Amino acid sequence: MLHEDLMLLFINEQNGKLRADSSSVENALAGAVLIELANSGRVAFDPNGKKLQIVDPTPLKDPVLQESVTRIDKPMKPQRAVERIRKQLRDNVGAQLESRGVVRVEPRKVMGIFPAKSYVITKEAAQNDVRKAVAEVAHGYRGADARTGSLITLLYAVNSVHKVVEGDKRDMNKRAKDIAAGNWAGDAVRRAIEAIQAGVGAATAAAAAASGG
């Protein structure tokens, strides 16, 4: 699943910490969930093309996706959907990866006081595969497909491409911007991803402003 791949990209395998701040990670994960829901036909935009809504309530096998569907209880703008879905999403995705034997979640303390979590990679091949695929596209070695295009678009939305892919930050952002605007998805999905990307970016900016205030 896209949200699992994205979580693996954010995990620093050297120390088990995340490569971006919690708001960026949570917003990007929420965007990944929304893209999965759009791809599955569970959510779509209303006739005005401004708000996401549930169009197919059929239960989903993936527990993270199913739980997220319940939070879209009425038509809402992408930013609002991101803000609704992101709550506890990092922990839920981490727990799902742990249940699959991909990571081991361990408690830790920040500054010896504040509770946090470490994510120890236990199946290195899973992380290596997604990191290699994204790096190859980000460096221009091959074109984006639906999976890598979505991942890079979400990373770009939270200004984290350079944190996940080694290379010059300016070059990484330029490539990511081109990829985000690329034609690797069909028209309907493309429009949904663009709106979700904007929603993720707006939610991240709002969280940063609130934190700064």
Topology readout:
Layout: H1 2-10, H2 22-39, E1 43-45, E2 52-54, H3 63-69, H4 78-85, H5 89-99, E3 103-110, E4 114-121, H6 124-138, H7 146-157, H8 161-164, H9 169-180, H10 187-212
Antiparallel strand pairs: 1-2, 3-4
What can you see in these coordinates?
The chain has 213 residues and is mainly alpha-helical. It is 57% helix and 10% strand. The longest helix has 26 residues, at 187-212. It is globular, with a radius of gyration of 17 Å.
**What is the CA-based Rg, rounded?**
17 Å
- Overall SS class: mainly alpha
Helix fraction, binned, reads: 55-70%
Work out the strand percent.
5-15%
Annotation field: number of helices: 10
Measure the end-to-end span. Answer: 35 Å
Beta strand count: 4
Arithmetic mean of pLDDT: 90
Low-confidence stretches: none
Q: Give, in order, the helices and strands.
A: HHEEHHHEEHHHHH
Shape: globular
Strand order of the largest sheet: 1-2
Instruction: Describe the main β-sheet briefly.
Output: 2 strands, antiparallel
The oligomeric status of these chains comes to single chain
What's this, in brief?
By secondary structure, the chain is mainly α.
Spell out the key features of this protein.
single chain, 213 residues, mainly alpha, two-stranded antiparallel ribbon, 10 helices, 4 strands, 10% strand, globular, lipid-binding, GPP34 family phosphoprotein, GPP34-like_sf, GPP34-like, golgi apparatus
